[in-house]
Amino acid sequence: MIHLFGGPVEIWVAPRRKIGRHGRLLTIALTIAAAVLSGCGDDGGAEAGGGGTIAANTDTQLPTPPADGQREPILIKTRIKMFTGEVLAGSVIGDSPFCPGGTVRHEHGSPEIGFPAVNVFGCPDGQLKIGFGPGPDQMNNAVQTSDWKILDGSGSFTGVSGHGHMTVRWERAGSSNGQEAFTGVIVLP
């Protein structure tokens, strides 16, 4: 059994920013788009813990990305085995493929960054780091959920920001093989 996401979680809260009517409408539209995108694709069936309802993790409030920059919906799908994996076809930023042929590596997070785990996506055009982590109450579940936030980027991901929600579906509870889906919003500089 992997305890990658175990341990205490420090909750990170940023001050809310005022957004206008258009910002609220965009946020609502992107939230709906992310929900629709996360419902697409193979849920792995009952063998992968699929078929159930997943409640959103409300333990963390994520900051609103800055108003400047181009906002795009993002969907990242991965297949994980132990601490490494691959970015799957169907991963997108807006209408463009995200990280085709890319890899993903799990690293341990820390209380200083507010997340117990970090995914490092190695892409042909740069690297993207995302902090996330289901809470200790989910460690024995075949399906785990968490909020996520972009921590850093290089290459074409330099200066990006963003956040959203992730779900991992393990082959079975306690397995180290599974599939992740990160949905949300990315802000391109």
Structural class: mainly beta
Rg: 16 Å
Number of strands: 10
Proportion in helices: 10-25%
Order of strands across the biggest sheet? 1-2-5-6-7-8-9-10
Shape: globular
Count of discrete domains: 1
Task: Summarize the structure in short.
The protein has one helix at 21-39; strands at 70-81, 84-87, 92-93, 96-97, 103-110, 115-123, 126-132, 143-155, 161-170, 177-188. With 189 residues, the protein is mainly β.
Question: What can you see in these coordinates?
Answer:
This protein is 10% helix and 42% strand. It is mostly beta strands. It has one domain. An 8-stranded antiparallel barrel has the order 1-2-5-6-7-8-9-10. A hairpin with a 4-residue loop joins strand 5 and strand 6. The protein is globular. It starts with 20 loop residues before the first helix and ends with a strand. 35% of the residues are buried.
Can you give keywords for this protein?
189 residues, mainly beta, 1 helix, 10 strands, globular, disordered N terminus
Topology, element by element:
Layout: H1 21-39, E1 70-81, E2 84-87, E3 92-93, E4 96-97, E5 103-110, E6 115-123, E7 126-132, E8 143-155, E9 161-170, E10 177-188
Antiparallel strand pairs: 1-2, 1-3, 1-10, 2-5, 3-4, 5-6, 6-7, 7-8, 8-9, 9-10
